[in-house]
Every structure is written in structure tokens, then in C-alpha cells.
Amino acid sequence: xxxxxxxxxxLGAVHAAAMAxxxxxxxxxxxxxxKVESLSRGDAPFFEPGLGDLLRAGVDSxxxxxxxxMAGAAGSAVHFVAVGTxxxxxxxxxxxxxxxxxxxxxxxxxxxxxxxxxxxxxPVGTAQRLQPLVEERGASIAWNxxxxxxxxxxxxxxxxxxxxxxxxxxxSDRDVATLDEVYAPAMATGxxxxxxxxxxxxxVKVSANAFLATKISFIxxxxxxxxxxxxxxxxxxxxxxxxxxxxxRFLNAGVGFGGGCLPKDIRAFAARAEEIGxxxxxxxxxxxxxxxxxxxQRVVDLIVDSFDGSPNGRRVVVLGLxxxxxxxxxxxxxxxxxxxxxxxxxxxxxxxxxxxxxxxxRQHPQLSYVxxxxxxxxxxxxxxxxxxxxxxxxxxxxxxxxxxxxRVMVDGRNCLDxxxxxxxxxxxxxxxxx
Length: 434
Ligand code: NAD
Known about the structure:
alpha/beta
């Protein structure tokens, strides 16, 4: 099939490359000329495991092209809209400027019977609002939320755990058949597929993220209680996680969630609920957000306390900048936030990360960055692990002890073995762990 993918960021670039890899002819369209140039060469403009190979194979096959020209969408049967929906600058709601601009720019190039497929995460009501614009051109619109996880984006796109189609209008049956054809390999393996209305499809995405954020903040709230009582939140999570109704996944206490999705999605959901007169239904999301942000301050406080309240001029090494391992995404990253707060307190902050230094440096040029982890650790008076990259989880406490000036480790992800670190003479702090 001939497909266009409008917006080629973390979601769109992976989607475009994945669709080409299963045999479709794909044109990716983005307003960012540098990104398009990189993608056209088969070079991933950001770090995502496996994306480079998929892109190169697609570009070499001739089935995957990129352009900044929206006219390139003409002739495609299906147009995926994958542009960003960040938090508004002036409030908590989602900024729909990019979605509206992309759809409006696409309209003149739509053919009759084309299908516009929204993949961006949007406030409930967006598809219904765009429907008349698209139908005026004889085309139709569906909403097909995306559940990929950065770090696993290629696999998640090629082997999704479910497909959700929100459809409406006169041609719903045909639109469902079209989407089934797009996703034929996933359909053939029996991937669960839910066909529903626009509002449900839009809400599936934000409610899934609201649930995941709540689960993380729940265990982080338990960490706060554990800190006041001497209990161990990791053991607590193991124990409650054995209950299949609860489950152990996403129950790791730590510095909390971040990234380009969970924080802005729960805020946008709460803002949208206010607009439709149901603010109180998701009022708890404000607390979820607050618990999450408190954990960042807790990590900072542990460092400050280790210097008896005076971090000024003391060398603190921050391990990790990306919001999660196996990504270079620093949007609303707890790690970067911790680094910035410590820098603001006068600490001599040195940051390192296997992939995210470039993005972090663009956002916060005032911080010091060192690419090599051992070099970064030289002379550290405190170390804080904030992104659980495998290379940090497997650090040898004896070896790191030789590099640093003072053996203080704040494990913001509870991913190190406290016994092993203490045995090497380290003062170890976890979150919610005695
Ligand atoms: P992103 O910022 O990485 O990418 C968005 C891209 O859209 C950018 O490359 C930007 O240049 C481009 N763009 C903006 N306006 C445009 C226009 N008018 N025409 C063409 N291109 C335009 O964002 P992302 O992380 O890929 O997220 C995109 C959407 O997908 C968001 O709604 C997000 O919530 C959702 N989502 C993201 C993920 C994820 O893990 N990143 C997962 C699921 C859903």
C-alpha cells in the first residue's frame, strides 16, 4: 500500500520505517529539514535501538522516502498523523497547533477515499472536530493510538500488543478493512484488535498512560511512607506484586517518570476533563504528578544532606540524562531535572549518559558533560544514579571507589545492590529503602 507518515519524530520515523519493512511504500513528511535530510540518508536522527538498520533497509529498497513537501502525500491511500502534542506553554492542556497545522496542510492533497489516521496522543474530541474538514475532501478519518515504548519502539511497532481503531462516519467498515490491510502481518499473528468510536480510542491512550503513571506514583508514595517508618519499599513491591491482580511490573520505586508522554499526557487529561465538566473524576492525577515531582527533590535532598546541607562547590556526578535507558530522549527527564536543581544549589555537577548528552546540552548548556563514565567519575564527592542504563547497573563498586574522592552513592532507581556497595565502603542511599 502507499502510505504517508506526517511527523517523523520518535513515533513517526519508527512507524514509517516499520511500515516500509513490511512491504508498504512509505513517504515520511516533516517540517524539520535537517531531520528529513538525515532520514533520507538512512541515518536515525535520534537514538532508538534497531531503527538505523530498519531505516537503511527501507531507504535502500526504494520503498521509504522522506520530504519536507506535503505535496508528497498525494497519491498515498493512508496518511498517518504522528506530529507532536506537547504541553501548552500557557497551561496544562495539550498544544494541538501541530496536529491542526499538519491536517490543514494535508487537506489539499487528499484524494477521495483516502484515509487520514491520527496516531498522535490527543484530547478526547479531537477526531470528531477534524472529521468534517477531512470528509469535505471526500476522505475519512480514524484514530489509531500508538502504544510504543521508547527503547523498544521498533519491536512494539512491528509486534504491537494490541491495535485500537477509532472510527466514525459513513465508511467505517471500509476504514477498518484498510487498517487491517496496513497491519496485515500483526493481524495474521492474532494481535488483539479493538474497533471502537473516536472518543473511546482517544481515551484508551490517555487512560493507559494515566494508569501507568498512577502505578508508579503509588509505589513512590509507599516509598515516602517507607522512608518515615524504616520499611523497605522494594520488598514491599515484591510482596504485593505476587498478587496477580496487582502485578510486579511498573512497581519500582525511584526518581519517578518523565519523558515526552506520561507527564504531559496526565496533565492534558486533567485539563481536558476540566473542560468537559468532569475535572473531579481525574483529580487524583494532580496528586500523581505531585508525588512524582517530589521524588526528584528527595534525590536532591539526599545529596545535599550528604554534604551536611552545603553542596556549594562539591563535585556531584550524575549518571544518566535520558528519561529512561536505551533512549536519548531528555524531554521532562527526571535525571536532567535533578542535575539542574543540584547545579542551581551551587554544586559542581558533572553529567554523563551513553546517548543523551547532545540533547541535554542543547537544553542546558550551563551543565558540564563528560561522555566517558570512568572519566566523569574522577574526583566525585557524591554520585547519583538517575537513569538505569545497563552500564550503570553493572558498575563495580570497588572500581568506582578508586575513581571517586568520597564514596557516596544515591541510587535514584533502586537498581544497585546495597550490600555490595556498602561492603566496598560506600554510603549507599536508595529511595524508600533503609
Ligand atoms: P516528536 O517531537 O519526536 O516528533 C514530532 C515530529 O512532528 C517532529 O519531527 C516535528 O518536526 C514534526 N512536525 C511538527 N509539526 C509538523 C507539521 N505541521 N507537519 C509535519 N511534521 C510536523 O514527538 P513524538 O515523541 O514522536 O510524539 C508524537 C506524538 O506521538 C505525540 O502526540 C506523542 O504523545 C505520541 N506518542 C509518542 C510516543 C513516544 O514514545 N514518543 C508513544 C506513543 C505516542
